[in-house]
Design goal:
Strand order of the largest sheet: 3-4-5-7-6
CATH topology of the largest domain: Transferase(Phosphotransferase), domain 1
Shape: globular
CATH superfamily of the largest domain: Transferase(Phosphotransferase) domain 1
Structural class: alpha+beta
CATH architecture of the largest domain: Orthogonal Bundle
CATH class of the largest domain: Mainly Alpha
């Protein structure tokens, strides 16, 4: 990481999507007549002989992650076994068209998505390190140099994901991995694209529906959900940026910006923008950077940066003010 006050060029690539990413997009088919996208291949259950499960690394609401040995690649990998029925998860992953094909230092690399007799599983590279959430619990808010690099790395990775055609839809500190990149520095990587959604042309995006009318299922962390998600408006790059803004606020202040005793209270805090400005909180950030974070948290999407690339550019400008 750079020393506090230094503003070197962004260390991660931020440009056109990688070739592997473009190949992944090309592999995605569409229904005749321009309907919803579908996976280019069908996942058929089979007996799994390639992966030898070792230790349990973690468990969440939709699955368990193991450290596993990959006989074909001859290396350890992260093996996620989904709890939900394979058919349901397969439909969730259908817009992705298989595993994301990117190769970017700010994103976890996906190796395989398949099903065996025990259901659906996903195989990713094994990330060494600690999640940003655990790091914040152990050491508190990030010092300036770490805040700068986590912001740069995560935005660069998010830009690549968006350029490849995917929204993350569940950005939170628990889904950002920190690994050592030197004696006093970390590199952050965005992972867990379980809820990822392939970007659709405007004519295929979900139309705006009345606020929580009828039975509504929301996926993701309520603490980082953008107001438009509760209004059931289309998910855009700006929605992911709002979630990242919540995480960066947490990195600087030591607490999430929108909280409450119940989920309903948290939702209303988002909808009414009940948040203390970072300028009023004691943080290591200069005024221009604190204002930049608050722009990510703008109530309406139009007030936020239009893309991760634009957000990264304005972040670099804020560092120089």
């Amino acid at each position: 990481m750079n020393a506090p006050g230094s503003h070197a060029a962004v260390p991660l690539p931020v440009g056109p999507p990688s070739r592997s990413c473009s190949a992944a997009l090309a592999a995605i088919d569409h229904h005749p007549g321009g309907g919803e996208p579908r996976a280019a291949r069908t996942i058929r259950p089979q007996r799994n002989l390639q992966y030898q499960l070792h230790q349990l690394l973690g468990q969440g609401g939709n699955g368990r992650v193991f450290k596993a040995w990959d006989d074909r690649r001859q290396q350890f990998v992260a093996f996620k076994r989904y709890i939900e029925p394979a058919e349901k998860d397969n439909r969730r992953w259908t817009p992705v068209g298989g595993t994301p094909g990117w190769n970017h230092p700010g994103l976890v690399t996906y190796h395989d998505l398949a099903a065996d007799n025990d259901g659906l599983y996903c195989v990713m590279e094994l990330l060494e390190g600690v999640t940003l959430a655990d790091h914040l619990k152990q050491k508190g808010p990030l010092p300036l140099r770490d805040f700068i690099d986590v912001t740069r790395h995560t935005l660069a990775g998010l830009h690549e994901a968006h350029a490849c055609g995917y929204f993350h839809k569940d950005i939170k500190a628990e889904n950002i991995m920190l690994s050592r990149a030197g004696v006093q520095s970390y590199r952050s990587r965005l992972f867990d694209f379980t809820l990822a959604e392939r970007r659709l042309p405007p004519q295929h995006e979900t139309s705006r529906l009345p606020l929580l009318k009828g039975k509504v299922t929301l996926f993701g962390s309520i603490y980082t959900m953008a107001p438009e998600q509760f209004n059931r408006q289309p998910f855009t790059a700006r929605t992911d940026l709002y979630a990242l803004g919540c995480v960066l606020y947490q990195c600087a202040a030591g607490n999430l910006p929108f909280t409450g005793p119940t989920n309903a209270d948290v939702m209303m805090a988002h909808l009414h923008h009940n948040v203390m400005s970072l300028e009023e909180v004691k943080t290591p950030l200069r005024k221009s950077v604190a204002q930049w974070v608050m722009r990510l948290l703008a109530l309406t999407p139009a007030e936020r940066p239009e893309s991760a690339h634009a957000a990264l550019k304005s972040f670099e400008e804020a560092l120089l003010k």
